[in-house]
Amino acid sequence: MVDFPWIMQMEWRDLVFLHWPLPAASLTPFLPGRVPLDLWQGEAWLGLVTFDVTGFRPRGVPFALDFAQVNLRTYVRVNGGAGIWTFSLDAANALAVLGARLGFCLPYFTARASLRPEGDALAFQSVRRRHPACRCRLHYRPTGEVFRAQPGTLEHWLTERRSLFTVGWGGALWREDVQHEAWPLQAAEVQVVDCTLPGQLGLGALGSPLAHYARVVHVKGWPPRSVKRG
Description:
Elements: E1 8-22, E2 44-58, E3 65-78, E4 81-91, H1 94-104, E5 108-118, E6 121-128, E7 135-142, H2 154-159, E8 163-167, E9 173-179, E10 185-195, E11 210-221, E12 225-226
Parallel strand pairs: 4-5, 4-8
Antiparallel strand pairs: 1-2, 1-11, 2-3, 3-4, 5-6, 6-7, 7-10, 8-9, 9-11, 9-12, 10-11
Pfam families: DUF2071
InterPro entries: ADC_dom_sf, DUF2071
Protein name: DUF2071 domain-containing protein
């Protein structure tokens, strides 16, 4: 972890992780040339994560923000370190979106998004405000016992990452770190009602995903820093 103070804190709640294996060639064109995909047994993985952000506040700010969010992402390895690359992040708070775009150079978009209980499940829906064709609607619920993914397993490889990479100001490669406890994962049942977000990458129907649920983690975040390829 970085050796200077964290600048923001929040909780991530009621997350669902959906994952699909894909040929590396289907995702490589959407990454900068200096950022290689991280592969599991020769395959790239596309991830879709929906959740509620609660208690989001920069350090020292007395008020907090709550909003629903959905991220489309894949996995990369830079200088030997495993990380996340996000293709899009849709969030239901314009202030958070503006801050993430200006301060972190992340591809955030303002959306009408919500995550609500529906019977014994959770219902998530999101529609991007300026591009309503970018939408996501799904229902999910946990089905198994809580477990912590063990190193060397696919579940650990997909979820236990604490660094995110993006292209920052001036074209520099930035690394942005977070810290939280190990994911309290559970198997999940998911019904994807309608999700067009993978279509941003020219992808069609993806089939049934590998699905996991996590109840909550408590997150601290650090400012971006430039990194050079080793």
